[in-house]
Amino acid sequence: MADPVLNLLAGALRLWIRSQCDTIGSLELALNGSSWSLLRGRLDGVTLTARDACFQGLPLKHVELRSGPIAVDMKLLSPGQMLALKQPFQVAGEVSFNGPQLNSALLAEPWRWLGDWMAEQLMGLSPLGALRIDVALLELQVPVAAHQDPVCRRFRLNAEKGTLCFRPETSDEPRILLPMDPAIRIEQVQLAGGQLALKGQASVTP
User: Fold this and answer.
1) Measured on CA atoms in the order 166, 176, 163, 114, is the torsion positive or negative?
2) What is the pTM of this model?
3) Tens of pLDDT along 131-145?
């Protein structure tokens, strides 16, 4: 039998998540545990699934996250606050990006800097003209003055040292690691079906 208190809180959290996204298609969220355990300061975890979301200008085709146990303090709640977190907790899951949508995001603010960084670091040229996912390869294109066709190079992607590693299509070196927030650790990367999928973990700090 569903816990009415957790259902009510989950509904409020869904509304809050929608308010934080630029756009979002479907969203499912469930709180694991019981109202009794919540009053004692513990949630067993949270599971979230979303599709066709855009968060801070970044298009997310599919998101599937699950958290570990979460310590909460009901005494710290303030007006308008749904949960008061007592300590960091872990989140694991998968996020996927649609190739054409990711291309559009990297050519516009606020993510243009990342697209230009990739072009500069991987090709020695800037700015990025286009990004395309070609089967299991990532293709970057940069326009060059006095040339009709852009310069194109393709890269293989894998997870290394907790982040994305770019390797030239025809060799293993030189490889470039994407700078990553130390709280986020990418463990698996896949390019397939015109999408980029990332699996990993993150530490969420109150």
Assistant:
1) negative
2) 0.89
3) 999 999 999 999 988
Do residues 95 and 60 make contact, with C-beta atoms less than 8 angstroms apart?
yes
Q: Which residues pair with 154 in a beta bridge?
A: 139
Residue 102: CB atoms within 10 Å: 24
Backbone angles phi, psi at 17, to 5 degrees: -60, -45
DSSP line for 60-100: EEEEEEEE--EEB-GGG--TT-S--B-S-EEEEEEEEEEHH
According to DSSP, residue 147 is labeled -
143 vs 3: which has the higher pLDDT:
143
**CB contact at 8 A, 195 and 97:** yes
Q: Which of 33-37, 92-96, 138-142 has the lowest mean pLDDT?
A: 33-37
Residue 61 token pair:
């085709």
Measure Cα distances from 153 to 104, 118, 137, 139 in Å: 18, 11, 10, 6
What radius of gyration do the chain's Cα atoms show? 20
Q: Which two tokens stand for residue 132?
A: 């395309």
CB atoms within 10 A of CB 171: 9
59's CB contacts (< 8 A; 6+ apart) are 53, 97, 98, 101, 102, 104, 105
Query: SS3 for 204?
Result: strand
Q: How far is it, in rounded angstroms, from Cα 62 to Cα 96?
A: 5
